[in-house]
Amino acid sequence: MGAGHHHQLYRPGDTLVHRLPPQCKLLAVAAFAIVVVATPRERFLAFGGYLLLLAAVAAVARVSPGFVLRRMVVELPFVLFAFAIPVIGLGERISIWGVSLSVDGLWASWNILAKATLGVIASILLAATTEPRSMLLGAQRLRMPQLLVQIATFMLRYLDVVLDAMRRMKVARESRGFQARDLRQAPILAKSAGALFIRSYERGERVHLAMLSRGYTGTMPVYRDISADVRQWLFAGALPVAAAALLFIS
């Protein structure tokens, strides 16, 4: 079962990174994230090296810096929280441009920003070079719980269907002169949400019955081989191994 189209984060390509089996990339990104999280906040050179490693991966995958920067907006809540920590933090304080800031808060802010940014960039590169359906197949190859993989698969498949139903309901309301100006329109929106939930639930029941009638026994069939050889595992492992090396020598 496919998603029907490419996800907006995915960038089709035929690079070495794109051709890697998804389980290799998932494990490499997870190991890289562990190294980043384990890095002491004082290791500035290590953090700079991690960023250069991700830049090298982006170059090999032909993912432009602009593409990555535009999608890093998801990090904005972390950035706002990080900027607030030095202001509200306790302990020793210093003055920067006339603003009193906590020393411990500045360290905590740097720690959050550096590690969160590296994690977000790594995740963006993973999503840009791996189709969502392939990512789920990779998770299945890594022995993730079958139930979780199947739930994620159906969520991916039917998310656009549910969103399209929401758009049609919105158009239908507006064509009848409805405009959500204040809380007085809340009951109508609540009824629309309830109707959408019932439709989605009934669709899920129909899909499940259709699957059972076609021999579904609790596992989804895999129609293409995504096994990885030693060379591919070594290529994918170069990112976390290089990051670990930077941590030890910095």
From TrEMBL:
* Intracellular or extracellular location(s): Cell membrane
Q: Does the keyword Metal-binding apply?
A: no
Topology of this chain in the membrane? Multi-pass membrane protein
TM annotation in the entry: 20-37, 44-64, 76-94, 106-127, 147-166, 233-249
Which keywords appear in this protein's UniProt record, sorted alphabetically?
A: Cell membrane, Membrane, Transmembrane, Transmembrane helix
Q: Which GO terms describe its cellular component?
A: ATP-binding cassette (ABC) transporter complex
The answer on whether this UniProt entry bears the keyword Transmembrane reads: yes
Please, which domain of life does this record's source organism belong to?
Answer: Bacteria
Matches recorded under Pfam families = CbiQ (PF02361)
Q: What is one process in the GO biological process aspect for this record? A: cobalt ion transport
Which InterPro entries does the entry mention?
Answer: ABC/ECF_trnsptr_transmembrane, ECF_CbiQ, ECF_transporter_component
Please identify the protein, giving its name as recorded: Cobalt ECF transporter T component CbiQ
